[in-house]
Amino acid sequence: MHEQQKDPGTPKVGLVLTGGGARAAYQVGVLRAIAELSPDKSRNPFPIICGTSAGAINAASIAVSANNFAEGVERLEAVWSNFHVDQIYRSDFPGVLHNTLRCLLSLISTEYGQHHPISLLDNSPLEALLRNRFSFRTIQHSIRSGSLYALGLTVWGYTSGQSVTFYQAAKEVSPWKRAQRLGVPAEIGVGHLMASSAIPFIFPAVKLNREFFGDGSMRQLAPISPALHLGADKVLIIGVRKPVTDEPKRVSVSGYPPFAQIAGHALNSIFVDSLDVDLERLLRINETLKLIPPVAFEENNISLRPVEAMMIAPSEGINEIAQKYADTLPWIMRYLYRAIGAMGPNGSTLLSYVLFEMAFCRDLIELGYSDTLQQKTELLKFIGIQNNENGPER
Asked: Considering the entire predicted model, what is its pTM?
């Protein structure tokens, strides 16, 4: 995972944007703070950008605007701060009814299911939004101009069971193959974003080349790894869950957990648990490498190297924030989510992943912005911006 970078010079800072559905609005607030703190508003501070699931959409948005970072962040915020669920999935009664009937028919008819996707929600509005908002041709232009070195989006193959990172990068970047992990060059497009954000069961899988792919967070055992393979010397990770510092309380329960509570824990295991493990592993490797004398690296041809990492994560529980805005959903979605237990406290985790509503997203954006400013000094140093009395400078 810690492969030696051949080209010396200024360290390449990699940006890792994790999955999390509507929780990814938090990432937008972090990016807004970074854009405001940067003295050169147009300069992209992250030559390597990697994203998964909703984080893939944010990553691609920054990549297509790499020639003007602040402007790209501003456009991204304009979308998230005005979100409604009907821009992500059909939330009107006819649309929900049609998709529900299609889903049921797919379950009872093998032949019908082979030609029609099985999913709880119809996310065709998201595809239309992405086609309207993204100009993917600018990615290669940004790479040629030097504003971007690499963009990597991770998906998961339903047939192969492999975690695949499709990347568009400078010519010196080579494909990689590890246990259940691949890096494949590609011309990034809408299909890659739809596949990476296809939350299992909730959104349908997408066929790319010869295989159907779903949400890249599934079985992504090393979410930091793609950024390192693409050449990052250090990584800034933007998470979507408040760090767990205390052991959960053991309480007695009388009833069976609702579907939404079980689904919420499943989504946490998909989206956030592997990141915690991978970051812990990276930090432990760094500590181990400190114990090896420098001469031993040369004598034994050791290619490992320490990789600096910094993580910005919510200081508040996003589940609790989601509960405050549950009533902003359209009535049909409130009815559907209430039926599976997502509107109560025990189902708030699931709700936080699908609550693509303006008020909730704006609250998360402000939280991300505030949390980032709290770490301003450390952040500026990490991404290579020196702070003085007159403000930040490079």
From this structure: 0.84
